[in-house]
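Hey all, quick one. A colleague (J.T.) asked me to put the adenosine-5'-triphosphate job into the tracker so the inputs and the C-alpha cells live in one place instead of scattered across chat threads. No bug as far as I know, just bookkeeping. Sequence used:
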Amino acid sequence: MSWDDSITGSTVRPTRPDRRAYVPPFLRNNNYNIGFTVTTSFEKSKQYRSATDHRFDRPERDRLANPFEIAERFDELEVTENNEIELGINFDAYEDIPVETSGSNVPPPVNSFTEIDLGKAVNDNIKRCKYVKPMPIQRHAIPIAMAGRDLMACAQTGSGKTAAFCFPIISGVMRGQLTQPAWSRRPRVASPVALILSPTRELSCQIHEEAKKFAYQTGVKVVVVYGGAPISLQFSNLEKGVDILVATPGRLVDMIERSRVSLRMIKYLALDEADRMLDMGFEPQIRRIVEQMEMPPPGARQTMLFSATFPTEIQCQKHLSSRWNGIGIEFLRFCDQWILWYPPEFLESSCPDTGFCETKKGADALEHWLCMNGFPATAIHGDKVQMERERALKSFKSGVTPVLVATDVAARGLDIPHVAHVINFDLPKDIDDYVHRIGRTGRAGKSGLATAFFNDKNTSLAKALLELMQEAKQEIPPWLNQCAETSSAWGSSGRGRRYGGSSAFTCDTPETTNYAADEEDACSEYLEA
Ligand SMILES: Nc1ncnc2c1ncn2[C@@H]1O[C@H](COP(=O)(O)OP(=O)(O)OP(=O)(O)O)[C@@H](O)[C@H]1O
C-alpha cells in the first residue's frame, strides 16, 4: 500500500507485529541471539544506497522521497515478541489536565480536526500521520492560530506543539495561493511567507521533516537552513522556491546578510522553544531578525511562541510586539521522576576514567564506559561535527545504540519515540533545562521515567526541583525538603526562573537517555547553531 493509498486504508497495517509486545531495541539487535532479526531503517537506507546505483529507478527513488516513508520505516523497528509496555498515544493521560487560556475573545477549542478548515490536502496528511484526534494543545492552539491571533503557548514536552503551529501555517500559506517560487520576484533572493525558528540544528531538521509530511501534496514548499552544513546546497534548495523556511538563527542571519533571503514577505513567524530563543546568546540575533531585517511589523505578521517553559521575565517582555493582543495557553504535565542522592565520589568511582559528565569530554567518557560495560551507547555534543551528531542520532533512533549520552544540544524538542528513561547524571543549573531534558521521555501521553543524581553541587536547584516534584505529585525524598530550605536562604528559584548550579546532562535512547554536559557546552552549542 502506498502512502497515497494509505488514507483510504485501515489505520492498522496488517503486516505490523503487535505493538503491545515491545522489546527494547538493543535486544532486537542481531548480536543478541533471541531468535529474530531486525533490519533497521538506517541499515535499510545503507542497503538501498549500496544496492543501487539505480539512480534513475524512479519508483524506488520516489518511494524514498516520500516524507511519510521515513516515519513508516522507523515504525518497522517495533518488532515485538512479548507483552511488556503498552505503546500508542494515550489521550486519557491528558483528560484530567486543564488547559488554561488567557486573553480576550479566545476562539473556542475544537474536538476534531474536521471541525477546522485546514483544507483537504492537510486533512489527508493528518490521516496519513494516523492522527485520529487533536492533542489538547492542538485543540486550543489551532483555532486561535487559524483566527490570525498571536499566540504564546506553554505546553508540556511531547504534547504535539509542532503540529499545532505547522497546520495553521501550511493551511494559511495554501489559502494565500502563494504558489509561484518565492525567489522569482527578486532573482536568487528567497522570500518565504512563513519563518519557523528553532535553537538547534537537529530540532530544525526534525521540524522540517514534520512540516514536509504535513505539507505533502499541498504545493507548499518547506526548506530548512542551519549551520554546520554546506551553505551552497541550502542556497540551491532555496532557489527551487520556498514558502515556509525553517531555520536556526545564525545561519538565517548569514543568509540575509548575503542577500539570499528576504523576510519582507513574512506573514507567519513561529518560534519553537521560544524561551531559549529569547534567552542566552540568541536574543540579539532574534532582535535583528525581528526588528531590523525587513520583517513586517506586528499586526502585519502573525507571531506564535511555543515552548514547555516560559520564564516569567520572558512572559513579561514584549520582545516581539509592543501591541501584544495575543492569547496565552498553558497545559502542563510531567513524567514520573526519581531523585537520588549520590555523592559525586560515587559517580567518579563508578566511572573512574572521567570527571563524570561535567564536560563534553565527560559525555564521551560516559559513552566509552557504557560501551565497555555492555551498553551500546553513542554520544552527541557540540564538539562533534554535524555529520557525527546526525550519525549519533540516527544510530540511537534506529536502535543500533540503545543509549544516547547527550549534552543540552539534544535536550529540547527532539522527538524520539519510545525513550523509556532519561537519566540526569549531572543536573543542569536551570530547572527549565531539566524540564526539557526529562521531556524526551513520556511523550504523547506515554509513560516515562526520569532519574536524576543529586548531590551537594546541585543545592541551588533544590527549591525549584521540589516545587516541580510537588506539582507533578511525585514522591519527595525528605533530604530534598531540607536542601530546598537551606538553599532558599540564598534566594528563591521558582519554576520558570534561571538558576546557578552544576553541570551535566543526560542521554536519550529508545530505551534510555543520559545527559552529560556543562554550561559552556550548552551555551556554545546554542550560539553556534
Ligand atoms: N494529534 C496527534 N495524534 C497522535 N500523535 C500526535 C498528534 N500530534 C502530535 N503527535 C505526535 O506526538 C509526538 C510529540 O509531538 P511534538 O514533537 O510536536 O511535541 P512537542 O510538544 O513539540 O515536544 P517538545 O516540547 O519536546 O518540543 C510526535 O511523535 C508527534 O508525531
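Adding what we noticed when we looked at it: The radius of gyration is 23 Å. The chain has a mean pLDDT of 73.
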